[in-house]
Aquaporin
Amino acid sequence: MIPNQIRQSGVSAYVISQVLGSTLAAGTLRLIFNGDQDNFSGTLSSDSYLQTFVIEFIITFYLMLVVSGVATHNRVIGELAGLVVGATVLLNVMFSGYY
């Protein structure tokens, strides 16, 4: 983790919270989009599940790296933080979006 910024003791709680939250969100979407509406093309993978997982892991890591850097670095211009995070999301969608 980032030295002197994030305590090591809070990392496990953070990871558990993220996994639990994403699982609950996926379950909620599954309940909402039930029946004929469960084939939303934005969630279907055209590749293998392993390749999709690896790409998702890489872009999520990259996004969290940028967000953590913008949020914790003391030389970052605060007004541009949203622009940097937004550009990162845009590049993630461009490189790994649905095709």
Remarks:
- Residues 1-43 form one domain.
- The chain has two domains: 1-43, 45-99.
- The chain has three helices and no strands.
- Residues 49-72 form the longest helix (24 residues).
